[in-house]
Amino acid sequence: MKRVLSGIQPTGNLHLGNYLGAIKNFVSMQNSYECFYMLADLHAITVRVEPKDLKENILSTAAAFLASGLDEKKNIIFSQSSVRAHSELSWILNCTARVGWLNRMTQFKEKAGSNKEKASVGLYTYPILMAADILVYQATHVPVGEDQKQHLELCRDIAIKFNNDYGKDFFNIPEPIIPDISARVMSLRDGLKKMSKSDESDLSRINLTDSKEQIVQKIKKAKTDSEPINEDIFNEKSKRFEAQNLISIYADLKSESNKKILSQFEGKNFSEFKKDFTDLLIEYISPISDKIDLLRKNEDHLLKILKNGQEKASNVADKTMKDVKNIIGLSL
Ligand code: AQP
Q1: For residues 291 and 67, is the Cβ–Cβ distance under 8 A?
Q2: Which atom of ligand 1 is nearest the CA belonging to 182?
Q3: Could you list the active site residues?
Q4: How confident is the model at residue 332 (pLDDT cuts 50, 70, 90)?
Q5: How close is the Cα of 229 to the center of ligand 1, in Å?
Q6: Distances in Å between the alpha carbon of 217 and those of 136, 204, 275?
Q7: Please, what is the average pLDDT of the chain?
Q8: Which fold has domain 202-294?
Q9: What's the rounded Cα separation, in Å, for the pair 133 and 128?
């Protein structure tokens, strides 16, 4: 059986990077895999968050999942904190993972920055909770953006060590599924920085809730260069990072190759490209944004979907925990 687990932190408005890097893949898998999609609210509290904001973000992220095309009847959609087995398995895997492995995680270094001593322990052990999220469902596949690749490798290492330590072929070793084009969508203001919910500048990202006017403004202000569009953009030495980003996003939205889009706009300048790009984004984002708005107004409906997801996810996760406890001698 092919089983998928993935999730998104409810840390604010989802953006085009989350959509192209993760959600679009989630949607395409719902017909051929058994899918578990979680709102990773335990991951969200690794940094300080206001309780009222967290609750709102959980509901709006659930609305964004559905508005982007995830069908609640085909997928198990739930909040991570509502299934206790995630935290329980996480502790056990804390005892399997090695400190040296965690010390190599680049995302912790990026997120903690120069203030490592003051970062939460949760931010440091985040990849172990992520391993528990995946392994508690014995997921075979995990669709993620490029930034999560290292964490997934750690998850595989933890599963292999657990199996070796206890001499059992118990945990499945999951495979990542990383999109070809939009594995890493970059900021609209800086082509070397990942598009991110936590970037201080809202101009750096297209949110799934942005209005047409906001999209127009953000693309108008998106950083580009004064050179015309040509094949050189993807040349390693060109350093035209912002140009690469916009062309790649366009190509992904059109389901075309970068090469095809480059030949379509060959010789034109970015002001011309931006007009088409804005129209394409509006065509894509506006229906999602309208649906989020509508779904968010029906809180009872969202809560019912999450409750149903919790029950189904718990059934599977509790069974894994029972087996894990048996294997390690914790069941009396
Ligand atoms: N810029 C991106 N390009 C491609 N994929 C991306 N993802 C995130 N940003 C990009 C993918 O979205 C999924 C969910 O990510 P997340 O929200 O759980 O955590 P994150 O990667 O830390 O995302 P953000 O937006 O940067 O959140 P904040 O600012 O709160 O930390 C993952 O599959 C991720 O790869």
Answers
A1: yes
A2: 4
A3: 111, 194, 197
A4: confident
A5: 29
A6: 44, 11, 11
A7: 95
A8: Tyrosyl-Transfer RNA Synthetase (1.10.240)
A9: 9
Could you tell me if the CB of 208 is within 6 A of ligand 1?
no
Nearest CA to ligand 1 atom 8: 18
Contact yes or no for 160/133 (Cβ under 8 A): no
Cα 331 to ligand 1 centroid, rounded to whole Å:
37
Report whether residue 61 contacts ligand 1, using a CB cutoff of 6 Å: no
* Distance set, CA 114 to CA 53, 110, 199, 200, 278 (Å): 26, 9, 17, 18, 37
The finding on whether 131 has its CB within 6 A of some atom of ligand 1 is no
**What are the sequence ranges of the domains in the chain?**
3-183+299-328, 202-294
Specify the CATH number for 3-183+299-328; select among 3.30.565.10, 3.40.50.620, 3.40.190.170, 2.30.30.90: 3.40.50.620
The string of pLDDT tens digits covering residues 206-219 is: 999 999 999 999 99
Q: What is the pTM (predicted TM-score) of this model?
A: 0.93
Model pLDDT, residue 301: 97
| Residue 192 reports pLDDT greater than 90 | yes
> Is the CB of 17 within 6 Å of ligand 1?
yes
